[in-house]
# Entry
Amino acid sequence: MKHYLLILISFFNPFLYSQGKQSTDSIVYYNKLANNNLQDKEYTQALFFTQKSIAYCALNNKPENLANQTFKLGKIYYNLGNYEDALKNFHKSVSLFNRVKPTCTKALALHYIGITNTTQGNYQIAELYYKKADNLLKELNIADSAEILSYQKAMAFKANNNFPLAVKTFQRIIKKQDNNSILKAKADSYYQLGLLKNQLKQNDSAIIYFDNALEINAKSNDLAQKSKIILAISQYYKKQRNFDLAYSYLDEHYQIENYILKIKNAKLDVNEFEKFKKNQSINKTLKRENEEKIQLKTYRYSKLVSILAIALISILSLLSLALYKNNIIRNQNNLLLREKNKELILAKNKAEKASQARSEFLSTVSHELRTPLNAINGITHLLLEDNPKKTQLKYLESLKFSGNYLTTFINEILEINKIDSTKVEIENISFNLKELLFNIQSSLKELATANKNYFNLEIDKSIPDNLIGDPTKLSQIILNLINNALKFTQNGHVSVIAKLYAIENDNATVYFEIVDTGIGIPEDKLQTVFESFSQGSIEVNRKYGGTGLGLTIVKKLIELLGGEIKLKSEVDKGSTFTFRLDFRINKEPLEIKEEAKSYSDEQLKNKSILLIEDNKINQMITRKMLENKAISCEIIDNGEDAVELLKIRKFDMILMDVHLPGINGTTATKQIREFDKITPIIALTAISLDENRDMLLSFGMNDVITKPFVPDEFYSIIATFLE
# Structure
């Protein structure tokens, strides 16, 4: 950030002292002394001479110079971290500038008020001054430099740990068109986005941003910037345990640094070199004198050391005889330990390979089953819409239920594998816990009514309204636990309780309790119910159904969020699940999101869609579903032909299968975005263990539809982008 401050100062240098050549030598003199002390990091002296300059300007009635020097004083206080004095001087500077013709220094003063408020967490005040600075720059016809100011603003958000606003500001910079004045800011913004994604453990997105930073840097040939980007890429690959690539980038980083160092060294003049040689000669003389003193001391103590050495050798000789026998015994024991260690390492490696093979097998099976399941669910949906006979309706409803059951089962297997493979990313976003629990209760009322259960929700009013955490995973945990409670309870009670357990500073600990009066769990099964595919007994599985994966997912997700689940149960009396989770408190008001509007057939009518899909069954199903809504559909089965067709024809939307023969869907999307940045591209994928939504969106896709897709969701997403 300091580097960008230097760029800004150099950019606005012609305006900093708008009196032209200073009218008196005193301002020049004090300014020169202040700048020299700033270069030497003598901030106390720099403050002294700047204040001298201010006093001189006030005495001699130099309003514009007075405003400039007051702004400079504020900058020194800002760099020292004294934000209160910095704000006072920035405000005073703006007040002084109001009396003279507007200059770029006034825009800088307004912008620094915004940055200082951002650093203190006063975002609303900061945004007000950012807008004032931008408007003044536009008035002065130098709005291009606003992107450098935006970069400073983003860095202030990052320094204050407000990552969402920092990311939003950086992304606004990288969307600007390339020109010489913005190249450095764009490259640094891509670099900072990569660091933030790394910090948020979104590794797939991080490397894409680092690569984009290198691509922009190549246009400006800034070696110092390139060096830090390459170092960040090296550290990324080191975290990914790809040590070959990490070493390769690290070596390139050191080569650039050495080259920069050589350039700097070449600028040393002859006088500096002579001074260096003279200092070397003095150091050698001092070193030689010290060595002579050390040799003299060594000689004096040599006799004493010799006597002590003889005594020690005699004692050590006696000890060696005793140690010899002990060494023989120890060596024998070490040989036995080495053998046992080898056996343990082999057993450990076998267990790790078996676990990895299991995970990869389940992931592959889950992924591969999605394509035929998409065919089953899709054809069932089409048949149900085609006015089937009453005698056929029962069979089709059964087929739909079976397809949905299998989809849920596969999703749960994939969820467990993602958690075990540490590929699950934890969100930290603002949400309303009370509203989330009320929505869950509403969605499960029908299940409670079906089993004739009284479903009660108790929420502690003292729980803060806005918390920061992962609402998606919390919903998954609570939904699974309530589903189980309602499923295994009939004509009983199910209660969900949320209490404020503790609150400290900006952190709140919430206690959750899910209680039912159902069939209960035998004491000998209390530990195994959290294991995969376990439901207490074969009889329970046959009577109530289910996959036996719900509690496994719950336990793993709670541990992932830093909590621990506890269970108390008694047969025929019910079960109680409890856990505690920590959340940060969001003091800012929560943004109200409008509910997504449901689609209408008129939105879809007479639209043209290109479907890129290689599976014949999926082609047939998707085309039929689109044609049922009066949508024109054209099909291509590979990415290469699709790219060529889109160069000469336009469609309202593109449905892109991710896994294609030849180039895959992500590569095809990247190529399309080179000449078409407008047409919506929706990914169709059976998301596997190595895929995630953010990774697919980073290639230029607008949204993702997961196979097997739910028809209403399929139409709704399409309608959203066709609007």
Summary: The longest strand covers residues 493-504. Confidence is low (pLDDT under 50) at residues 1-24, 540-545.
